[in-house]
Amino acid sequence: MIDIFLAHPWLKTALKIAVAVVGAGTLGIVAVYGAAKAYDLAYADRIVPGVVAFDINLSGMTPAAAQEKIRTRMDQALNDGLVFNVGDETIALADKKNFVRYDVDGVVRQAMAVGRGSSLLGNTIRRLTLNLHPERLTIPVAINTDDISRELKQRVQQKLVAPLDAKLTINVGRAGDAPTVTIEPERDGKVIDFDPAMAALKTKAETFAFEPITVQVTDVQPMIRAKDIEPLATQVPDWLSHAPFKLEAEGNSWTVTSAMLADWISVTGTNEGWMLELNSDRVDAALQQLTKGLLDEPIDGNLVLADGKVKEFVAPQEGTRLNPAETIRRIEDGWANGSSTIAVPLEKIVPKIAGTDAEEMGIREILGVGRSNYSGSPSNRRKNIAHGADIVGGALIAPDEEFSLLKRLGTIDGKNGWLPELVIKGNKTTPEFGGGLCQIGTTVFRAALYSGLPITERRNHSYRVRYYEPAGMDATIYDPAPDLKFKNDTGHWILVTSRNKDSDVAFTFWGTKDGRVVDITKPRIYNIVAPPEKKIMETTDIPVGTTKCTESAHAGATASFDYTVTYPNGEVKKTNYTSYYKPWGAVCLVGVATPPPVDVFAPLIDTSGINNPN
Fold this sequence. Notes:
- By secondary structure, this protein is an alpha+beta fold.
- Among the domains are: 229-346, Ubiquitin-like (UB roll) (Roll); 362-591, no CATH class.
- Helix content is 30%, strand content 31%.
- A 4-stranded mixed sheet has the order 4-3-11-10. A 4-stranded antiparallel sheet has the order 22-30-29-23.
- Strand 14 (265-270) and strand 15 form a beta hairpin.
- It starts with a helix and ends in a 23-residue tail after the last strand.
């Protein structure tokens, strides 16, 4: 053993230097250092002695030479391709380099790193021991099992037969005819078990030993046999006797005939044996077609902020899906209860808002939605509502912040995009900006209510307005007062989004739900008072002889509803909102050539929204 150890010239030199060091002191240390550095220079661009990859000795090779050596050995090993024995057939896959891939570059990098640490002393000791204990490296190998399995399946397709369960088929003829039940027999099958073969291939690839691999062909028995389900044929007439019956969802109804029901019936296994069932997949497929116009996949939204403002917001869209299992349960319950009409449950799928900003701010889900309709509004009023919806949409409300709607809307004038509407003050007409703002106030008020937020300021209109029905759930705003205010007490940010389409305006509050429960009673309307007679006023602001009615008549009334919020800690806050509405007579303008005299004693009539339905 000593002779072998001393056979290498560098080791022999190092040993002589080490012996000399004992008696030479500092001079010896210098000599050892010099020998180690000389070794570094000799193998600066080569693999140090004592490094082996598989059975290939890489000692003293450059990286390029080592790569060539390994690839040559790899090609020799794969010369015959990958050979598999499948049953009595031998299959060779020639495209072996796409099926088996070695990381040659990676193993050569590992080989070059051996004996090249950060310590000169450590490197020297490691190199001295490599001749006694060589470093044996494994070349990483990747097996493309999917492509190999696919190729083998194609080559032995004729040997593979999928097992086939016995099948019960129901044919429904003309009304009054008995159904025909047939049972198709089962069939045994054969399948290939690839997992053991792929495991054996990986083992052989790691040792460059590519002998033929045996692939097992296994007999597979069907789960359902004809003799098992023959007794079920007598139960079919009882199942079909439940048809016809109706399914309903969101105002739509569909009749399930005997033929449809027959297609839904299948066989299933239980602990007690085989039995008939309504097949979930078949019921789902049929209902997907019937309810096609009612179903939508949810679409997640996205929020991006810049400088604390909403830069981009894609509103998520709520989805609607079927629940086949629940539908089947309701059908079976309906049969048991003798019901001929069964409601199909449609599940609402709540989407999410993606993005880092949304996650950090807690903007995840819908807290509440407020809606109102302004059909029949004049052009400028409609445009003002749209403008207000655009301004309020995108509002971010910080935790514990009190939101002011007037502050959000800003100055109401022509410079800020607001349009005028004719209003009546005294017996004179004058244009005033912002007609329709109370539609915004009312809708935001409702969104805050349905989100369970505390309302800190709100005033109802003096007159009942058809735009804001149901009465009692309106809120008037007018610069500088009154305002609509509420507080964000959710502990997270709130994002307000708007939607304005087909005379419907809606505001949605997004945030994080904390478990609070909101209950709002339906407004109770009472103390109804008839409106006064129509008021005709002359004006030069419209063409002579024309008539323009600014308001229709409205009866007076009192409206009341309760707003209750139950918090997760059990605390309950209840508020009663009672609104008093004065009777309001119709007001019409008639165009005249000469201005009418100013009646300083005429009662003030305005369309600010406080004392007037506009």
